[in-house]
Design brief:
This protein has helices spanning about 5-15, 30-40, 60-70, 80-85, 90-100. With about 100 residues, the protein is an all-alpha fold. The site of heme C (HEC) has 19 residues, from helix 2, helix 3, helix 4 and helix 5.
């Protein structure tokens, strides 16, 4: 592999692995966690396209979906992989964040 291709592959791997590690679970920052969701689900959880809107859902509903994705019980294209990258504590924090009233 050429050095440039190697660097690109490493960067891609970092992008995939980037995200809160379990060591940070204790102080999971919901705002930071939610930033990664906003890219697909819209800045306020109001999706501009075909990706489901998170805005207006309860924390319990969001968490139930995330737990289903993480366990594989709920079929998905990307959410299963995304949910597996978070601890249960982090999923709870991010679910509560998205359930807040409009910001
Ligand atoms: C790469 C784009 C992407 C990112 C990033 C992303 N999602 Fe999703 N999300 C999707 C897609 C696409 C679906 C539809 C299910 C599927 O195919 O994976 C979905 C579905 C969901 C659902 C189910 C909604 C319903 O209708 O029941 C929830 C809840 C959810 N995402 C929460 C989150 C949270 C919380 C984050 C951040 C931790 C996040 N998503 C990050 C693309 C994304």
């Amino acid at each position: 592999m050429k050095p440039r291709a190697m660097a690109a592959a490493l960067l891609a791997a970092c992008a995939v692995l980037w995200g809160p590690s379990s060591a940070e679970a204790q102080d999971a920052n919901p705002v930071l966690l939610a930033l990664s969701c906003a890219g697909c689900h819209g800045p306020e959880g109001r999706s501009p396209g075909s990706i489901p809107t998170l805005w207006g859902r309860t924390a319990a509903n969001v968490l139930e979906s995330l737990a289903g994705f993480k366990s594989g019980q709920r079929a998905s294209t990307v959410m299963g992989r995304i949910a597996k990258g978070y601890t249960d504590t982090e999923l709870e924090a991010v679910a509560r964040y998205w359930a807040q009233p409009a910001r």
